[in-house]
Amino acid sequence: MDLRRLNCFLAVAEELNFSRAAQRLHMSQPPLSQQIRLLEREMGVQLFERSRRAVALTPAGLLLQDKARQIVALHRQAGELCRMAASGLAGRLRIAFTASVPLFADFSRLLGEFRQRYPQVELDLQHMTTGEQIAALAAGQIDLGFMRPSPAFRIPLPIRERTLWRDELMLALPAAHEQARSGAPLALQAMAEQAFVLHPAVLGGGLHEHILALCSEAGFVPRIAQPARETATMLALVAAGLGVSVVPSVYASICPPGVVLRPLADAARHSRIAMVCRQDESLPCVQMFWQQLCAARAA
């Protein structure tokens, strides 16, 4: 169905006068009449009752009028959305984040501010480990990542990176542990003979690599008694006495009873959350999200 003919039809249907409709469309009357005849031929029905004195819609014309208005409006909206997508004001933004990221209050606030400012941009949020995010960025499956890079972790593709938050790595001990009552920072080396509860290596997480590097610097390889995918699960297993662990201090807000967090005395005990995207990323809404977040952090 020709959109131009529908616009001609709507002008005549609303004016009920070919001359006024032609003036409204900035065209002469004969081509307008021809467009209406072609539309009637295409539809196989008469759309207007014509006489020397008046023009009126037929029952078929009345039905088409409602549908034609919807079609023209949808076409206009589609055009507007395409233009908004080209400028970054509409589209879909795929964001991945590690489990600890939502614990930072700024994260939800920044997402909310972006959604209010750009309501036509759909936010597709996914939970992924740091390793999973790197693989997803390389495969083009996500646009932005909020990850916890490790000093020992190498990212195998060119990325753009911005550090957002830093927190402290802390020892997580069962409350019954002999050193749990000490308020002083504890050396990681003192845990060399302890069983550890850590993320499995297959997840490729930045935190896992960071902890292994810290243990190596302390002169031992941790004996992993129980792997756990989620840090919240790790803490629950520590509370059950299955071992000790090392977790970011942001988890203190959801630490279960039976777990005591103690600061580490060793060097390089800090971790960070970084926002990353591909170095060659050109999606407009990614650039807008990046700029808004950086401006908010600067403020």
TrEMBL record:
Keywords from the named record: DNA-binding, Transcription, Transcription regulation
Keyword Transcription regulation: yes
CDD domains listed in its UniProt record: PBP2_LTTR_aromatics_like
Domain HTH lysR-type, residue spans: 1-58
Top-level taxon of origin: Bacteria
InterPro entries on file: LysR_HTH_N, LysR_subst-bd, WH-like_DNA-bd_sf, WH_DNA-bd_sf
PANTHER family per record: HTH-TYPE TRANSCRIPTIONAL REGULATOR CYNR, TRANSCRIPTIONAL DUAL REGULATOR HCAR-RELATED
Similarity-based family: Belongs to the LysR transcriptional regulatory family.
Designated name of the protein: LysR substrate-binding domain-containing protein
Source organism of this protein record: Comamonas guangdongensis
